[in-house]
Design brief:
- With 337 residues, the protein is of the alpha/beta class.
- It has 2 domains: 138 residues, Rossmann fold (3-Layer(aba) Sandwich), CATH 3.40.50; 173 residues, Dihydrodipicolinate Reductase, domain 2, CATH 3.30.360.10.
- It is built from 10 helices and 15 strands.
- The strands form 2 sheets. Strands 14-13-12-11-7-10-9-8-15 form a 9-stranded mixed β-sheet.
- α4 packs parallel to α5.
Length: 337
């Protein structure tokens, strides 16, 4: 299989590294308009480098391509790949807005190519284990799902705000973990340091099944945090995406001698368990899943429809912040009209 990478920013360089290390794959071409980025990608490799995607596609003729360009270029890149029957691993967000994302879906369908969205957290071993244990109802009825994704401002981001760049991860993983849809979002955003887009969002939502969702994302924290907390009747799971750790804090009610307390039957601190998880680089697992889908001709594990839904939720989040009021997912968003 011949692979190529378009866009050699931080994420694109990681795609190039993983493709280079995969057995049975030849990283045949990379594309970036910046000479320094191309030179860096060529270091220690025999890969050919180009400044233009169409030129690379015609010269190298790859089977698959990772698109890790700024979001505004995604539609053009998918269209060029589709013209040549090249399958695409498309970094999130899918597009600048839902309308453009739906055009990408139409392009892919007409061409009959596989397009998989790079929602990388779905391949994080800690979150996969959390999903399995939630499905098994190990903490009983689920009350609340919290996600916290904060850290310093990344200089690589210029074209979108924190909602589309980072919160799309949490909006997608919420659907993934709950196996359910959000039917309401209520958000507040702020623009404190970033000069063009929001750099802080706090969102509260509700799933169709009644689980309360709480998402906090910013580019303002000096400490990087990637954490998911699932609270249920029997205790609380805490998953750390950075360390790939999963903890369980059990609810352990213990009867006391005071009869009044016996009637309260409240929450009490129980055992804490740290689960043994086999760690793996999520990007490698993501690319392996993409290759398997292309080779089998089956549906990719993260189809375009899922990426579009994450973008719809992001637009609803921004719309809620603009209105200062909750937005139900049945309502159209101004940015999508």
């Amino acid at each position: 299989m011949k692979a190529a990478v378009v866009g050699l920013g931080m994420m694109g360089r990681n795609h190039a590294r993983v493709w280079s290390d995969m057995p049975g794959v030849d990283l045949a071409g990379v594309v970036d308009p910046a000479t320094a980025a191309r030179d860096d990608a060529l270091r220690g490799r025999t890969t050919r480098a180009f400044s233009d995607m169409a030129e690379m596609l015609d010269a190298v003729r790859p089977d698959v391509v990772s698109v890790a360009t700024p979001t505004a270029h995604h539609e053009e890149c998918v269209a060029q790949a589709a013209e040549r029957g090249v399958h695409v691993l498309l970094e999130k967000p899918v597009a600048p807005d839902v309308v453009a994302a739906e055009r990408i879906a139409a392009i892919a369908e007409r061409a009959g190519i596989t397009v998989m969205v790079g929602h990388i957290e779905r391949f994080n071993p800690a979150l996969l284990e959390l999903r399995r244990r939630l499905e098994a109802e190990e903490i009983g009825a689920l009350f609340q799902l919290q996600a916290r994704r904060v850290g310093p401002f990344p200089s690589r981001i210029r074209d979108v705000g924190v909602v589309q760049d980072l919160a799309t991860h949490d909006l997608d993983q919420t659907r993934f973990l709950l196996r359910d849809e959000l039917d309401l979002v209520f958000a507040q955003t702020a623009q404190r340091v970033h000069t063009e887009h929001e750099d802080l969002v706090s969102m509260v939502g509700r799933s169709r099944g009644g689980v309360i969702v709480d998402i906090e994302v910013n580019w303002l924290s000096p400490r990087k945090v990637r954490e998911v907390v699932a609270l249920g009747a029997g205790g609380m799971f805490v998953a750390d995406s950075l360390t790939q750790d999963l903890f369980l804090y059990e609810n352990d009610y213990e009867e006391g001698a005071w009869r009044l307390l016996d009637t309260l039957r409240g929450v009490s601190e129980g055992n804490m368990t740290r689960f043994a998880i086999r760690r793996k680089e999520p990007l490698r697992a993501e690319i392996e899943a993409f290759v398997a889908a292309v080779q089998s001709g089956g549906a990719p594990p993260i189809p375009l429809a899922d990426g579009i839904m994450a973008l719809r939720l992001a637009e609803a989040t921004l719309e809620s912040a603009r209105r200062g009021a909750p937005v139900t997912m049945e309502e159209p968003c101004a940015s999508a009209s």
